[in-house]
Write a structure and sequence with these properties.
Blueprint lengths: L2 E5 L3 H12 L3 E6 L5 E3 L2 E4 L14 E3 L5 H10 L5 E2 L1 H10 L13 H6 L1 H8 L5 H16 L11 E2 L2 E2 L10 E6 L16 E7 L3 H12 L6 E4 L2 E2 L4 E6 L7 E3 L4 E6 L1 H4 L7 E4 L5 H6 L2 H6 L3 E5 L6 H12 L4 E6 L7 E6 L7
Helix pairs in contact: 5-11
């Protein structure tokens, strides 16, 4: 690859540009429907403004984590033939001797080989055809970077898709770990009979908006807990960004509380746990072992943040409580927002 076009002028597009420079790939233009002007001195144009003199043979790197197929279809309609995923671009980097982009899912066949036993063990846990399909596509995407292996989202509301393998019944106490501004909770309110929602988020930049959003529902009982969730009660340093992608750091930022769900729900039953906590899911599950064994709540745990989460999280849940039925569901047309659904018998709907 000597020349390329980058579709997406956001954070991922900038990372890909820097890696392209390192690999001596000339970036001809950026394509973005929401940004115009220049980036790194290179023109940014929208899909509708692509000129006829731009060669359709130049590879287009899809620097996106969401709506990837939509972008690919728009570029195909313009005559572009060589559409490259992030994983595909990482394969190109590896072949040229460059270090791949540290974005999940990252492509590294050596890492896949090292995890073969775990991958096979996780595959044996999945309880339906759709879950196996998502898992197999993910592994093949890591191996080959093909656009065709990128999943399309399951229809319906995130965390409550139309093809969900569960049906919540009765009054539900929920732990929403990584509540952000309530973007995951709010669509669920008309669908689930909530007794009480415990909304966890350590980012003070979003706490006020979360409070306002949930307060609009007059009969909704909720409690906002300004803390992260983890394997032990402790204090850590946190760097917020106001977008839900704040991260724990060794120094700097500011100090936050981290709590275990085992302690928070020591004296209360929990029926539903959702986790979207930027890669801290495994630690948080370990801090919830007692209530997962005691209450056997429905679990919807994001598996796309860290390498190996696709197999390590199902394996960990099975280890904690082997009575669960394990599923995968995809909430975006890539592997971002893919969740592991661990369903107790009382909520199974097929």
């Amino acid at each position: 690859m000597k020349k390329a076009i980058i579709y997406g002028a956001g954070r991922t597009g900038k990372v890909i540009y820097e890696k392209a420079v390192e690999a001596n790939i000339e970036i001809v233009t950026f394509i973005d429907n929401t940004v115009s002007g220049e980036l790194f001195g290179i023109p940014v144009t929208s899909v509708s403004d692509i000129t006829t003199d731009l060669s359709r043979d130049i590879p287009v790197i899809l620097a996106l984590h969401h709506e990837v197929h939509t972008a690919a279809e728009s570029m195909s309609a313009k005559g572009f033939k060589n559409l490259v995923t992030i994983s595909g671009f990482n394969i190109t980097l590896c072949r040229s001797g460059c270090i791949p982009i540290d974005l999940v899912p990252v492509c590294d066949p050596a890492l896949l080989k090292d995890d073969t036993d775990k991958i096979n063990a996780a595959k044996s846990l999945f309880a339906d055809k759709r879950s196996l399909e998502i898992f197999q596509h993910y592994i093949e995407y890591l191996q080959y970077g093909r656009l065709d292996d990128l999943e399309r989202r399951d229809p319906g509301v995130m965390y409550y898709p139309e093809n969900r393998p569960f049906q919540l019944t009765g009054e539900i106490t929920m732990a929403d770990c990584g509540a952000f501004t309530g973007d995951a909770i709010i669509p669920l309110i008309p669908l689930i009979n909530f007794k009480r929602i415990y909304a966890f988020d350590p980012d003070p930049m979003v706490a006020e908006e979360l409070e306002q959003n949930l307060s609009r529902f007059n009969n909704l009982s909720f409690k906002i807990i300004k803390a992260g969730v983890g394997i032990r009660d402790e204090k850590l340093f946190f760097q917020p960004d106001g977008s839900g992608r704040g991260t724990v750091i060794e120094n700097g930022g500011f100090e936050i509380d981290v709590v275990t769900l085992d302690n928070v729900f020591k004296d209360n039953k929990v029926d539903f746990i959702k986790m979207d906590i930027e890669g801290a899911e495994i630690q948080a599950l370990k801090g919830a072992e007692k209530i997962i064994k005691r209450d056997m709540p429905l679990l919807e745990i994001c598996v796309y943040h860290r390498w190996g989460d696709f197999w390590n999280i199902p394996l960990l849940i099975h280890q904690i409580n082997p009575q669960y039925s394990i599923y995968l569901r995809c909430n975006d047309d890539s592997f971002h927002d893919t969740v592991c659904c661990a369903v107790p018998e009382r909520y199974k709907n097929f």
